[in-house]
Amino acid sequence: MPSKSRREFVKKATSLIGVSTLASTQAHALSLTNPGRDAKDARYVGAEGKRFGMVIDLRKCVGCQACTSACKSENKVPKEKFRTYVPEYELGSYPNVRKAFLPQLCNHCAEPSCVSVCPTGATFARKDGIVVVDNEICWGCGYCINACPYDKRYFNPITNVADKCTLCAHRVDHGLLPACVESCVGGARVFGDLNDPSSHVSQLLSTFPATVLKPASGTKPRVFYIALSGEIQSLPYSNGILDDAVRKREGALHKEWSSKGE
Amino acid sequence: MDFGSLLHTISSITPDRPWGIDIPNYFWFTGSSAAAFIISSFAHVFGMKEYKPIAGFSLLLAFVLLVAAPMNLIDDLRQPGRIINFFFYGWENFPTSPMKWGVLLLMAYPLLILAEAIVLYRPYFTMKKGASYTKEQEEKDHRLGVLLGAIGIPLALSVHGYTGYILGAVHAIPLFHTPIMPILFLASAMVSGTGLLIILLPIFQKFFTDFKRIDYAMMQRLARLLAWFIVIDLVIRFFWLTFAITFNNEEKYALKLFFGENFWEVLIVDYVICLLVPMAIGFIRFFSRSLKWVLFAGVLSAIGVWIFRWNTVIGGQSIGKTTPFLLEYHPHVFGFDSILSVVSNWSLLIALIAAIMALFPWDKEMANYYTKEQ
Ligand code: SF4
Ligand code: SF4
Ligand code: SF4
Questions:
Q1: Superfamily for domain range B17-373
Q2: Is B13 close to A247, i.e. CB distance below 8 A?
Q3: Residue B2 C-alpha to ligand 2 middle, in angstroms?
Q4: pTM of the model
Q5: Which residue ranges make up each domain of chain B?
């Protein structure tokens, strides 16, 4: 290679490197939030002026777990992980006993303690109140998983980051109902805009006394329950009676973390 | 009516828990580092002459511990390749995410210790190069050393205090959620740091110096210091537990359940064997005069604080938030966040100690105090 063209080449190469570094630093510029939100990615912005939430009418829940499985297949939730599930309880003492079901999902809290502790800005609340995780930013520190008082987050073994219920934002953004709501056989799960006084959720809330789980946690949940019994409202620390049927079936009881109460 | 006793969970799921064995180990490392730094400041900043001979040594120890400590954190991340995201994004959470403050502290603190160590050992480095070290320079370095030490003390306290803060801020976990957690962590850190110093000092004095003599008076002094730190630690734990278990709101039931189930590990092993015994050794002259007993106290207290970190981090996460009773943790043997990770971290620590102690003339500096005395 003659020396002149070599010099040209070096010049071009350096300017190319220079430009690309500049471009990459621009793309990586310090951000208060995260790049997806800065770029106004529709998945992360959400609907302005709305406040999505859910009302669960426990009088109608029959404990069929249709929501559990609909959520799993809709969101491809990995084995042994759940975004929603319906624990089964026995209340009272013999002979006065009855059964109770408590469908649980992320409460999309108005003051989410999972969001405030996140050091990378990977988890945040959209404008419509849906709390989501940006799985390209999360570094998997797990702080949010411990900070959620409702155990509603897990590490997704496929993406290797924190994951949770998205209130089916991908469906809601297209005018569909969340999978668990659509599949609910008893019509116990009702989804809607809490800001809209004529929505079904608002009407239910103004008609019936409703409450939230663990109100003392201070996170202001936006999943409300009708006919929630006092025994299970605060999910008290009770005796070692827990049957994790799913894990038992999958033979995974003695993983890294397992329930002791078998 | 006690609702809880009338409630049976028939079926539920086992929830996820993020932090494993790496985290107690990390807390132990940063804590011991902070303690070693404070002990070195006894001489450097507060002018306590009796601690002069070990000031340099413990400063280097503080540095090494803090270089090795963050490896635990990186290993605990599920996406360690995304560390850069921490620096670029999420700054709106700065006021509310103690983890955000912590990483910044974690970077500033070892740099400061390194600077202080270089200033401290500058005379030896300059003389080695054959240059002369003037009186004027000595005074300047002394002032710089005091200044760095004075900045370092709050930094050391915060670098470990923030780890307690991280836990204390988690109101979802009854065992973590107390404003006393940062102070409690500092107090137990002083115990483990002094314990570690008690273990390492005689080994280094005996085998890696020219004077090859263990300073028994210093060992006795450290044993007494250890005993006092244990007293402080116990007093803070007394306040913590008596308030949390007796006067707390609902959280007290979780704590009663936890301490009831783990009575043996927490009360007998941690409190009696690993705190009360070393305290007695430090205070009773018959024991503190004997090197063997002092070493025993050092080992016990270092292990005891490790167990305390474990009981807090793992124990806290074992408490069910929406499921009844406790979870159980079995660390993996291999892979990320496993027993092997912790073993490798300790190996790294030993390698780093060897490297740093070989680079810095700590033995020559220490020898000064002993040859002068003779
Ligand atoms: S339920 Fe938990 S994960 Fe969901 S928003 Fe509230 S604190 Fe966050
Ligand atoms: S695991 Fe991810 S989303 Fe959760 S706090 Fe850490 S970085 Fe944020
Ligand atoms: S809203 Fe969607 S993601 Fe959330 S629990 Fe229901 S189905 Fe699962």
A1: Formate dehydrogenase/DMSO reductase domain (1.20.1630.10)
A2: yes
A3: 37
A4: 0.91
A5: 17-373
